[in-house]
């Protein structure tokens, strides 16, 4: 049966990650870093991966990982979302890792162990907006090398290796220094996207069934993204409540006005619902049953608008302060909005769901 | 023997002494009460055995497996859910012995004389008066939205006994005999055409002081117990996927492809997802309770279901198109139970409008969440130190 609660181990993991992020990922330094030219935080990544072993949660122990499940990875993502942490966890430790878990052979195994250690960062070279089951662009494979250009590749700038789908249907591994990675100016400063140009880049084939690997990777990405969105929405609610208890206008705390109380109570309700949906998706991914696709589609279709709503409410209720660069609410709004497109929009997931639960669209004329 | 094993063996003894198929329904229910298996957490002699509340499930499962009759908890829900815990908490020994057994067996139906036309969400502002006359109280006033009043033998009643103190302090709680002269029950025909509720007019109703529940002027405190139990009973059930109102509209969608439009498709999918997520939230709440870690999530369940029921049934009326212009039956009827699935979409749409009003309006519940869960400041209270008689009405 679906277990929607957090185990004691998961609670301990959450506390440890939160402590680390409190010490090493405060909002002011994240804001400063976004302007530094190196948006990713390699020190934080090292602490999370080499220090705590978190990059290998989804990888079996025999393959160099921690042998944990999506439930634990989801807890980590909740905390990373709560801190808008600029690390390639979702892209490398979840999405690229899941793609490799679908592959067989030495090349894939070697890469999987490297990603699990965290010393190598991987990125799936599929545009961030592609959802499970949706279309994505592939490059040309010729004489052992790749040719072409891909855009919207999340965290490519931090990656050591790219997993690239080619037109022959296979998935290839390419070293980052064999390609040209040009950062694009991204809406989400903490999970930037880049253009990747392949000009005869040497490539190692990791599987001939690239479609299955990509699909598995994007499904896990979409399902666990709901946990990041949960953390993000929770931060937005908690910070807004805290601020509105302190901020006084018309000789009263602003949080005592009923119009605002109702909005915050409504948001709380959405966050509570998002937690149930996100836990359900994480548990379904961990157990891998028939219901996984429904659980992922439901979680992502529900959580994405909630995260955006939470960040938008946080901005509006912080009012003028929310519009400033110094206050971190903009980081959350940018992440939430980009997340609402990542791994399939809510609308795309609803369409997927229509097929899964037999609620078909009208016949087109 | 563990408590659970003891309950199981007592249940088997009850079944052996009163085989359900050979015993009359009422006789079986009386025997079950006397065996302490009605509410296992109630005291001995009052339908229980002082066992942990969670073990009721053990007894219920054994009895269900044996095909034993139940006491029709939906029909007597007000008595079970509200009157009984209040009588247990605040009643005299004599009151408990007199009322709990026929309440539980369903021989005596209860109703709740709380709401008033002039009070609404501000329940403590109620104006029904009870004036002491020797050993009796004389009650005058009007109550409203009273489910089951036309079937009820008894009522729990709150009335004002002191108009010179602030509103919460001048209320006293009584048990009212619905057969007394001066109690007049009139059907209140509602938006759906039927009369599920009543207005109750109380004119010179004489209630002996021995049917007072709790101290004079402490009625609000007693009523809190009743109201707390009312909210707990709403929204705690386990439902399968598509188990709520989303079920009928999803079936209509599948069976009637000619009705489908793109706009309705998007809205249906969105509501299907929200209903599924609300179901998962309820399931998560249930798992928390089982694990002994109750969370504040329960406060929100009624809010979520009220809105969903209204939106889903509203969508269904639109989906039906020309049929949505019709209504199944406007005949004034007096249903004993609210039946959401036995009637058409139009009925569901209209009846679900009450979901955000009954048992605490959504606006009041949002305040409760904001104040008790999020810790936001309460509204300024201008009525706090004002005598009831001086309040604006």
UniProtKB/TrEMBL annotation, chain A:
InterPro entries: AcylCo_DH-like_C, AcylCo_DH/oxidase_C, AcylCoA_DH/ox_N, AcylCoA_DH/ox_N_sf, AcylCoA_DH/oxidase_NM_dom_sf. Its cofactor is FAD. Residues 209-354 form the Acyl-CoA dehydrogenase/oxidase C-terminal domain. SUPFAM superfamilies: Acyl-CoA dehydrogenase C-terminal domain-like, Acyl-CoA dehydrogenase NM domain-like. It comes from the Bacteria. Keywords: FAD, Flavoprotein, Oxidoreductase. Residues 7-118 form the Acyl-CoA dehydrogenase/oxidase N-terminal domain. Belongs to the acyl-CoA dehydrogenase family. This is Acyl-CoA dehydrogenase. It comes from Streptomyces dengpaensis.
From TrEMBL, chain B:
Residues 217-374 form the Acyl-CoA dehydrogenase/oxidase C-terminal domain. Residues 111-195 form the Acyl-CoA oxidase/dehydrogenase middle domain. It holds the Pfam family Acyl-CoA_dh_M. This is Acyl-CoA dehydrogenase. It comes from Streptomyces dengpaensis. Residues 27-107 form the Acyl-CoA dehydrogenase/oxidase N-terminal domain. Keywords: FAD, Flavoprotein, Oxidoreductase. PANTHER family: ACYL-COA DEHYDROGENASE, ACYL-COA DEHYDROGENASE FADE34. Its cofactor is FAD.
């Amino acid at each position: 049966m679906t277990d929607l609660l957090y185990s004691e181990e998961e609670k301990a993991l959450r506390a440890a990650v939160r402590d680390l992020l409190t010490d090493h990922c405060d909002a002011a330094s994240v804001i400063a870093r976004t302007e530094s030219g190196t948006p990713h935080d390699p020190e934080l990544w090292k602490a999370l991966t080499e220090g705590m072993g978190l990059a290998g949660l989804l990888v079996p122990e025999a393959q160099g990982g921690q042998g944990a499940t999506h439930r634990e990875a989801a807890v980590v993502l909740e905390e990373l979302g709560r801190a808008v942490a600029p690390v390639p966890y979702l892209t490398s430790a979840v999405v690229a890792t899941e793609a490799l878990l679908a592959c067989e052979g030495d090349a894939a195994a070697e890469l999987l162990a490297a990603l699990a250690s965290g010393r190598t960062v991987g990125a799936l070279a599929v545009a961030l907006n592609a959802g499970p089951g949706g279309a994505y662009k592939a490059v040309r494979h010729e004489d052992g090398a790749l040719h072409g250009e891909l855009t919207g590749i999340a965290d490519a700038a931090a990656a050591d290796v790219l997993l690239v789908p080619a037109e022959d249907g296979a998935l290839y591994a390419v070293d980052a220094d064999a390609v040209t990675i040009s950062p694009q100016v991204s809406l989400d400063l903490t999970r930037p996207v880049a253009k990747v140009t392949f000009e005869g880049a040497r490539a190692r084939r990791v599987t001939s069934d690239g479609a299955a690997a990509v699909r598995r990777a994007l499904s896990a990405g979409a399902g666990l993204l709901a946990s990041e969105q949960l953390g993000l929405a929770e931060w937005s609610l908690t910070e807004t409540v805290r601020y509105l208890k302190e901020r006084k206008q018309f000789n009263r705390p602003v949080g005592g006005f009923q119009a605002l109380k109702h909005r915050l109570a409504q948001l709380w309700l959405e966050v509570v619902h998002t937690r149930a949906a996100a836990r359900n998706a994480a548990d379904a991914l961990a157990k891998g049953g028939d219901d996984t696709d429904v659980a992922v589609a439901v979680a992502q279709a529900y959580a994405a608008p909630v995260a955006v709503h939470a960040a938008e409410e946080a901005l509006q209720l912080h009012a003028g302060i929310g519009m400033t660069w110094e206050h971190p609410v903009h980081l959350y709004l940018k992440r939430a909005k980009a997340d609402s497109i990542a791994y399939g929009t809510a609308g795309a997931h609803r369409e997927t769901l229509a097929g899964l639960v037999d609620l078909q669209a009208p016949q087109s004329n | 023997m563990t408590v659970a094993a003891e309950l199981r063996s007592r249940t088997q003894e009850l079944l052996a002494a009163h085989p359900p198929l050979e015993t009359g329904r009422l006789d079986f229910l009386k025997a079950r009460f006397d065996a302490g298996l009605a509410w296992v957490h109630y005291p001995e002699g009052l339908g229980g055995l002082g066992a942990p509340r969670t073990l009721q499930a053990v007894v219920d499962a054994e009895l269900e497996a044996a095909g034993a009759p139940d006491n029709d908890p939906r029909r007597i829900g007000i008595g079970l859910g509200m009157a009984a815990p209040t009588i247990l908490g605040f009643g005299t020994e004599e009151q408990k012995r007199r009322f709990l057994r026929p309440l539980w067996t369903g021989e005596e139906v209860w109703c709740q004389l709380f709401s008033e036309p002039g009070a609404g969400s501000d329940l403590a502002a109620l104006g029904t008066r009870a004036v002491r006359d020797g050993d009796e109280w004389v009650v005058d006033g009007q109550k409203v939205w009273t489910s089951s009043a036309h079937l009820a033998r008894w009522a729990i009643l709150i009335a004002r006994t002191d108009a010179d103190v602030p509103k919460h302090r001048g209320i006293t709680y009584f048990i009212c005999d619905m057969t007394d002269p001066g109690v007049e029950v009139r059907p209140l025909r509602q938006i759906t055409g039927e009369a599920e509720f009543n207005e109750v007019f109380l004119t010179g109703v004489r209630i002996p002081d021995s049917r007072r529940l709790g101290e004079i002027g402490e009625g609000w405190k007693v009523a809190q117990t009743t109201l707390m139990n009312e909210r707990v009973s709403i929204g705690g059930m386990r439902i399968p996927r598509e188990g709520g109102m989303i079920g009928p509209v999803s079936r209509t969608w599948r069976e009637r492809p000619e009705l489908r439009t793109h706009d309705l498709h998007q809205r249906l999918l969105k509501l299907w997802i929200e209903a599924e997520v609300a179901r998962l939230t309820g399931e998560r709440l249930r798992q928390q309770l089982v694990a002994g870690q109750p969370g504040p999530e329960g406060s929100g369940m009624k809010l979520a279901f009220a809105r969903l029921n209204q939106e889903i049934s509203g969508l269904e009326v639109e989906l039906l198109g020309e049929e949505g212009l019709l209504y199944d039956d406007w005949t004034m009827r007096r249903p004993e139970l609210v039946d959401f699935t036995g009637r058409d979409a139009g009925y569901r749409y209209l009846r679900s409008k009450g979901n955000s009003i009954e048992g605490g309006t959504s606006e009041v519940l949002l305040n409760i969440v904001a104040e008790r869960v999020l810790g936001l400041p309460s509204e300024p209270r201008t009525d706090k130190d004002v005598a009831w008689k001086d309040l604006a009405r």
